[in-house]
Design brief:
Blueprint: H1 11-22, H2 29-36, E1 38-41, E2 54-59, E3 63-68, H3 82-85, E4 89-94, H4 112-126, E5 132-137, H5 139-150, E6 155-161, H6 177-185, H7 188-198, H8 202-205, H9 208-215, H10 223-232, E7 248-253, H11 261-271, E8 275-278, H12 285-288, H13 290-298
Parallel strand pairs: 3-4, 3-5, 5-6, 6-7, 7-8
Antiparallel strand pairs: 1-2, 2-4
Helix pairs in contact: 6-10, 7-9
Length: about 300
């Protein structure tokens, strides 16, 4: 298992140092360009370490959109969608709390309520009394729903991309099983398998660049402990109801092999009239059909 950092190392500095070491090694050119728009933002009341800053890509001009990535991922997930949206929108793409390149401070907790607290602080910083749109992928879709419910006047519309965690209830994974689970997810063969499973056509769509991005954040100091704590808190689940009051659309990948069949069926029953199918996508329509996603957003009133 990964060794945790020493107490005297500043978590934000550790995350920044890690990014500095790896960003020139990025194979995917669109991902590399996202690093150029990476900012470190101060958020109130989020970390027990008051010096922590949090990573967020901020790019483009126009009406603001907050983009939320999925489980055990990072802002690089939106590398292919960003060029289509940034022409007419200001994009805010944070790493979710305890995920991606976020600094992990000792003593912090990393469950659902902490993720939402972090996102509410992001809204505090960027909404400027003007409602903004939210796009959420996979687990980010479930978080988008809860954020919208809590902020009916600050979030004006929602687009969910193969949302996960809308139905069912995750168990809380006790110690030491939570740490064994995180260790398992760190294994190269597991990451490669999950990456391939997420795409509709892995033989054609998955290569060294995709596999690199799927695992690039694993050596951020504190990755294992934050993921284990997230599992111990029960993760994100059962977020589909009540429906938010804002306009909402959902894009589901026709070939999604990540979301269980029963969860897909229940999601379809709840949100049937709001769903469209991305026929050439698996679990990642924003990577496999980014132009379709961008056009859906543009035409969504």
């Amino acid at each position: 298992m990964n060794k945790e950092r020493s107490n005297h190392i500043n978590p934000t500095n550790a995350s920044k140092a890690y990014i500095k070491n790896i960003k020139d090694q990025i194979i995917d050119k669109q991902a590399s360009r996202l690093f150029e728009d990476l900012n470190w933002i101060k958020l109130k009341g989020i970390s027990c370490n008051e010096s922590d800053l949090f990573p967020a890509v901020i790019t483009g001009r126009g009406k603001k959109i907050l983009l939320l990535h999925g489980f055990d991922s990072c802002f690089l997930e939106y590398r292919r969608l960003t060029p289509f949206l940034k022409k007419n929108n200001k994009l805010i793409i944070p790493d979710l709390y305890g995920f991606g390149f976020c600094p992990r401070s000792r003593g912090n907790k990393y469950g659902f309520k902490y993720l939402i607290k972090h996102l509410n602080s992001v809204l505090d910083l960027f909404s400027d009394n003007q409602p903004i749109g939210v796009i959420g992928a996979s687990m980010g879709g479930a978080l988008a729903l809860e954020l919208a419910r809590q902020n009916p006047k600050r979030v004006d519309k929602l687009l969910l991309l193969s949302p996960a965690g809308l139905v069912g209830k995750n168990p809380k994974i006790p110690w030491p099983l939570n740490h064994f689970g995180a260790f398992f997810l760190s294994q190269t063969y597991v990451r490669r398998g999950l990456c391939r499973q997420a795409f509709a056509h892995p033989t054609k769509s998955v290569g060294p660049a995709e596999e690199q991005i799927a695992s690039i954040h694993l050596k951020v100091p504190g990755w294992e402990s934050s993921l284990a704590d997230f599992a111990a808190q029960g993760g994100v689940s059962d977020c589909g109801l009540p429906k938010p009051t804002q306009p909402l659309k959902i894009i589901l990948g026709k070939h999604d092999r990540i979301i269980p069949k029963n969860e897909k069926e229940k999601t379809n029953k709840i949100y049937n009239s709001s769903i469209q199918i991305a026929t050439n996508s698996g679990h990642l329509p924003h990577l496999e059909e980014p132009q379709l996603v961008a056009e859906t957003w543009k035409n969504f009133k």
